[in-house]
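Lecture notes, continued. The same structure-token format from the folding unit now serves as the input rather than the output. Read the line below as a description of shape only.
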């Protein structure tokens, strides 16, 4: 199947006019979701109450991937004017055998079908961890192999794969950019997590920002050799200056009760999106 042509990455270079939207990452409520004290329907209602545009649904606590769960959730979101724009999955593409890599590929494809059914245009994926005894260069080639095949399938469904800076093979911005360039697909970009770099975070973020297709905001960041409070204004200004068009999703991981803290942080994120959107 011949896929339709899209603008080549980095997309942000095409225009300096930013368009910023806000979202809730389901992972912010991981404890409540895992203990069934909260449902994904509740996240839709929270998006309405807090005035955010969309949801990035971490799939770890989906009760099912069948129509009986997915379609009512999709309908509820639509009727409330909330976009389920992304889902976030686990993956490890640094698998040393072809059979293991094909298994990872099959798993990604399964979630592409789920994303397409929900109407989500993006999936957050992980590169994985370099196996013991293997080189990082070799592991990177495996990630490229899996992502290249996965993107051919996701592209046929209209779904973009966002490779997150999540440690392991994606611990450094330079390696992430290398992988994305090698895959060379408009259906693969970077899921930028502002809190995941372990050193020189703002400079590393600047390196992957031109390739970013989704951004997840966290409370802290590694800068100057220590973990400090993240400067959200600085980060949002970086997005705007790069001409980023897309979501800023809150992924809350601190200890305070998310039921009270997340709405307050979303008010702040909403204000920054309005401030820096053209």
């Amino acid at each position: 199947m011949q896929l339709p042509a899209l603008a080549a990455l980095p997309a942000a270079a095409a225009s300096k006019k930013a368009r910023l939207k806000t979202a809730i990452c389901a992972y912010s409520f991981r404890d409540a979701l895992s203990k069934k004290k909260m449902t994904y329907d509740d996240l839709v209602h929270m998006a309405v109450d807090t005035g955010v545009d969309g949801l990035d649904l971490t799939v770890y606590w989906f009760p099912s991937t069948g129509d009986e769960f997915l379609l009512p959730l999709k309908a509820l979101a639509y009727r409330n004017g909330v976009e389920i724009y992304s889902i976030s999955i686990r993956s490890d593409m640094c698998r040393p055998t072809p059979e293991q890599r094909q298994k990872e590929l099959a798993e990604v494809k399964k979630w592409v079908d789920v994303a397409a059914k929900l109407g989500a245009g993006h999936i957050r994926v992980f590169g994985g961890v370099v196996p013991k005894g293997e080189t990082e260069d070799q592991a990177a080639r495996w990630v490229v192999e899996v992502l290249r095949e996965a993107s051919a399938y996701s592209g046929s469904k209209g779904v973009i794969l966002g490779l997150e800076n999540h440690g392991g093979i994606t611990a450094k911005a330079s390696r992430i950019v290398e992988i994305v360039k090698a895959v060379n697909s408009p259906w693969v970009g970077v899921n930028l997590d502002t809190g995941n770099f372990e050193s020189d975070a703002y400079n590393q973020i600047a390196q992957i920002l031109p390739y970013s297709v989704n951004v997840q905001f966290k409370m802290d960041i590694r800068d100057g050799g220590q973990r400090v409070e993240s400067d959200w204004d600085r980060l949002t200004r970086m997005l705007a200056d790069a001409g980023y068009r897309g979501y800023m999703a809150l992924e809350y991981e601190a200890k305070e009760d998310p039921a009270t803290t997340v709405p307050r942080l979303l008010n702040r994120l909403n204000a920054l999106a309005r401030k820096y959107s053209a």
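Point for the exam: The domain at 11-276 is CATH 3.20.20.150 (TIM Barrel).
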